[in-house]
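go over both lines:
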Amino acid sequence: MIELVPDQLPSLTRWLPAGSPGPAVVGEHVLSTGIGHWWADRPVQPRAIAVSCAGFTVLRGTPDVLTPEALAPLAHHYIDAPARFLPTLRAAFDRLTPWERMVWTLQADPQPAPTPRGVAVLRLGRGDADALASLGPEAEWIHSPWGGPSGLASSGHGWAAVDATGRLLAVACTHFRGTTYENVAVFTRPEHRRHGLGLACVTALCADITARGHIPSWNCSVHNRASRLLAWTAGFRLVREYVHHAAGSTLAAG
């Protein structure tokens, strides 16, 4: 596929789902932040397009026009696509693993989330980039949709539980920002889990999202019991389930 430049995008947004929770917010996030990539089978009057950010891709259009070589940029991505694309995707990658997912939206009040003595829940700011980076490789996924720690820190879309030394113990942020929904993500240092810090951060973030006139949403694996429990405790309720697919390595070279 051909990577598109920003001035080619406005006419293509009609291809993608919009204003709904779940994968739709990926395209909206890329369009509003400029972080991510857009591809099409051809630059003028495309028949298939894809948008991706932080390894998540939304693919739409006509699968018959796509060759394995054209799909090579989507290797090792999580791909949301209609079922008609599956034969084409299977022919392009050495594996295509289905991943059952759940979409939740905020519909109830959260349970109380008191924090331990000496811990405060604060909005992240530009000066917190190093503290975010200190969370290590295990947490890179949470700031990658913003281009890294500096991007998330300066976005105004993150909240953290901070101890008296300024160390981040947990962070919640808008993972992908849509026009109506903002998808919530949370990470807590392993040694500080099960102390309500993630819930406290999510509660603060959700209040912030609501104040912006948007609706908090939650996206997790069907098999991620801890994430499902936290979502419920924070006031999220299930809206629907869907399946996206984890692509392996490209077969184009073979």
